[in-house]
């Protein structure tokens, strides 16, 4: 048994739905969520900058909280830095990558929309995923940094109409292209999952990697023999300026808001 925390790392609040899945299915585990808000958004930075931020941030999380596992709950950070993290630090890492495989498996029309940050949409790793799992599909890539910003800064205080307005350009693009699967390839967009389902209905499957990531966490815990038997306090920490919106997100996911203290 190992009662050290599992750490989640993201540029902001996007990874919280992934943490929510883990909290629900692993009730004895303790979690610390670190949002690198000082460098948000990653998707508008260069790959070199993101790699530096992630390596420095993860090193700080390891030093401060001694986690037994780290989940890189950010598609952009995973695509850019995951291999180097695994080479540098001797503990298990779980990454998040665009869920193209399950989307292709369920797409009858072979037309898929990939909603991501600009960096993820254009990265060669995404090209490899398309070739490996969706080579016979038309994959329409949509990079939307403004929607990432909306989720980070406005979502928690927005009503249903404001959310509907924010996602309308994506909804219209998806309908115009006639796709039958929408891949949420930035973890921030999983916070809009219900809104996309309401607007697009049953004709478009909304696909993300929450369950796949969660199952991998569970497999690694069992494989490494590091499952917990005593629950501690779950916390949310930020690297940048503290804000009431992060306190509200922490409350929504059952986390103690620790400010800038990891």
How would you describe this structure to a colleague?
The protein is α/β, with parallel strands linked by helices. The protein has 2 domains: 6-96 and 210-257, Rossmann fold, CATH 3.40.50; 100-207, 3-Layer(aba) Sandwich (Rossmann fold), CATH 3.40.50. 47% of the residues lie in helices and 16% in strands. Strands 4-3-1-2-9-10 form a 6-stranded parallel sheet, sandwiched between helices. It has a 4-stranded parallel sheet with strand order 6-5-7-8, with helices on both faces.
Topology (elements, then pairings):
Layout: E1 6-10, H1 16-25, E2 31-35, H2 47-65, E3 69-72, H3 75-88, E4 93-95, H4 100-106, E5 111-116, H5 118-122, H6 124-133, E6 138-143, H7 145-153, H8 160-177, E7 181-184, H9 193-200, E8 205-207, H10 210-224, E9 235-238, H11 244-252, E10 256-257
Parallel strand pairs: 1-2, 1-3, 2-9, 3-4, 5-6, 5-7, 7-8, 9-10
User: What would the CATH topology of the largest domain be?
Assistant: Rossmann fold
What is the CATH class of the largest domain?
Answer: Alpha Beta
**Helix/strand/pairing class, anyone?**
alpha/beta
Strand order of the largest sheet: 4-3-1-2-9-10
The total of beta strands comes to 10
Give me some keywords for this one.
single chain; about 260 residues; alpha/beta; Rossmann fold; 2 domains; six-stranded parallel β-sheet; four-stranded parallel β-sheet; 11 helices; 10 strands
Question: Would you kindly provide a brief summary of this structure?
Answer:
The protein is of the alpha/beta class and 262 residues long.
């Amino acid at each position: 048994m190992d009662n050290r925390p599992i750490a989640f790392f993201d540029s902001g609040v996007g990874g919280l739905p992934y943490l929510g899945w883990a909290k629900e299915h692993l009730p004895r585990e303790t979690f610390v969520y670190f949002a690198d808000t000082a460098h948000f958004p990653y998707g508008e930075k260069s790959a070199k900058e993101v790699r530096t931020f992630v390596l420095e941030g993860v090193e700080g999380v390891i030093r401060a909280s001694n986690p037994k596992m780290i989940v890189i709950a950010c598609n952009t950070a995973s695509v850019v830095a995951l291999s180097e993290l695994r080479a540098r630090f001797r503990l298990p890492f779980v990454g998040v990558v665009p869920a193209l495989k399950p989307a292709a498996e369920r797409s009858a029309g072979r037309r898929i929309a990939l909603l991501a940050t600009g960096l993820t949409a254009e990265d060669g790793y995404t090209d490899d995923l398309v070739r490996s799992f969706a080579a016979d599909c038309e994959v329409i890539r949509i990079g939307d940094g403004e929607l990432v910003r909306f989720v980070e800064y406005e979502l928690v205080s927005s009503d249903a109409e404001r959310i509907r307005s924010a996602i309308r350009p994506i909804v219209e693009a998806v309908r115009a292209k006639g796709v039958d699967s929408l891949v949420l390839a930035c973890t921030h967009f999983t916070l809009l999952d219900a809104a996309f389902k309401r607007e697009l209905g049953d004709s478009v499957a909304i696909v993300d990697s929450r369950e796949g990531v969660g199952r991998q966490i569970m497999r690694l815990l069992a494989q490494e023999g590091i499952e917990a038997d005593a629950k501690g306090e779950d916390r949310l920490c930020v690297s940048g300026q503290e804000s009431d919106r992060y306190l509200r997100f922490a409350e929504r996911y059952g986390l103690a808001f620790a400010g800038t203290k990891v």
